[in-house]
Write a structure and sequence with these properties.
single chain; Arc Repressor Mutant, subunit A; 2 domains; 6 helices; 9% strand
């Protein structure tokens, strides 16, 4: 197995590629392993990586989930949540993603998936309001 150096430029290309191209989970896992190896071998500085990442990119899925969080969150059946998402997209002039992509974004966001005998559910945490974020302009 040959060693590959992962530079910041390559990392930025990989992040763009992973966000914009459909690929098998095994390929995503291979890319993640390469990045982690670069960090462990000292070829990538994690401080530089994380300093350049503000937060998870905003998509219509993240916007939808954040509205659910602000409304109090809760446990929702997966199929019902996706249906609500599609309706929300239609009402807001947004183009919904596929159900598979929807589920992947929820996983990326850290939304907990609960598998039960009757159906799959997602546990959406209630939004936490930080000081200065109460909407009063302060």
């Amino acid at each position: 197995m040959s060693e590959t150096t992962v530079t910041m430029a390559k990392l930025e290309q990989l992040v763009y590629f992973m966000e914009n191209v459909s690929m098998p989970r095994s390929q995503r896992d291979e890319i993640i392993r390469a990045v982690m190896t670069g960090i462990l071998l000292g070829n990538l500085d994690p401080e530089r990586i994380f300093a350049s990442i503000e937060s998870m990119p905003t998509t219509n899925v993240t916007d939808f989930i954040r509205t659910r969080q602000k409304a109090g969150g809760g446990k929702v059946q997966a199929s019902e949540l996706f249906c609500n998402y599609v309706n929300w997209c239609n009402a807001n002039g947004k183009r919904p993603v596929s159900i598979a992509r929807f589920g992947n974004v929820l996983v990326e966001m850290g939304v907990k998936k609960i598998k039960q005998a009757d159906a799959n559910y997602y546990e959406i945490e209630k939004a936490v309001t930080l000081p200065g974020e109460d909407g009063d302009g302060q």
